[in-house]
Design brief:
Length: about 100
């Protein structure tokens, strides 16, 4: 399993951005090859962190391009600059 973590600085309405992502981006991402999960986390101040999980490294990398295009076309007014991106292989994953 491979993960892509993207951190965005939000300059508009956090609630409105999250709703746009839920309605617009999530259905697109869910249909991407190898999709496993997607999470959006509100962090300090105006930051949002997203975590995308995919079957392999190429699919996780491709999700970054998919996200970049969607953000540019749909919510660029809500974010300040490109996201900080971290990618890697899942080492441990536990759920309740």
């Amino acid at each position: 399993m491979h993960v892509s973590v993207r951190k965005y600085v939000v300059r508009g309405s956090m609630d409105e951005l999250i709703e746009c992502v839920r309605e617009g981006f999530v259905p697109i991402l869910k249909s991407a090859p190898g999709f496993k999960s997607y999470s959006v986390i509100r962090v300090r101040g105006n930051d949002v962190v997203t975590i995308s999980m995919f079957e392999n490294q190429a699919q996780a990398r491709d999700s970054n391009q998919l996200a970049a295009e969607w953000v540019r076309e749909n919510v660029s007014s809500f974010v300040s600059g490109p996201p900080e991106i971290i990618q890697g292989e899942m080492a441990i994953s536990e759920t309740a």
